[in-house]
Amino acid sequence: MNIHETTIPGVLRIELEVKANPDGWFKENFHRERLAALGLEVVQHNVAYFATPAIVRGIHAEPWDKYLSPSSGRVFVALADLRANDTFGRVETFELGTSDALFVPRGVGNSFCTVAAHTTYNFLVNELWSPERITVDLFDPELHIDWPYERARLSYTERDAGNPPLAELRTQLRV
Asked: CA 119 to CA 68: how far, in whole Å?
């Protein structure tokens, strides 16, 4: 496991060792002690499967830390710092395959877009799920997210389409 800091404080990009074998590959995706050393005591593991590319979700900042990693396919991930601090609104993007993971602290908005068919995305979290979250518009021009597909091709939920702009959250947080 190789860990790299990013431009958003607390967000870590993690390279996982994937070992090829005659049947495919093997990776150690979860190791309690290693994740605990990052501050993540896992209490829930969620798995989402997406059959097609161009499915997008987010931007959501929940009240828990997350460890994200695909076990099949690829995803484009856009993170936005939504915490009331001097990096508020900072965005960083990544493309993750099976040998990649991200540690995302609470308060940092997470969004992703599938870029391969048959993508399985794992979310490990350190709090049980709750509906509480902060959201921001996926397509807010202030964020400058260069999605891998044109908006007309993307599939997203009505709920995500109605997220407020970053300026509204800035006003609420008085940043």
From this structure: 13
- Walk me through the domains of the chain, giving residue ranges and CATH numbers: 2-169 (2.60.120.10)
Report the distance separating Cα 22 and Cα 156, nearest Å. Answer: 38
Per-residue pLDDT in tens (0 to 9) along the chain, 175 residues:
888 999 999 999 998 888 889 998 888 777 778 778 877 788 899 999 999 999 999 999 999 999 999 999 999 999 999 999 999 999 999 999 999 999 999 999 999 999 999 999 999 999 998 889 999 999 999 999 999 999 999 999 988 989 999 999 999 988 8
- Residue for token pair 């993007």: 93
Residues 6+ positions from 141 with CB-CB distance below 8 Å: none
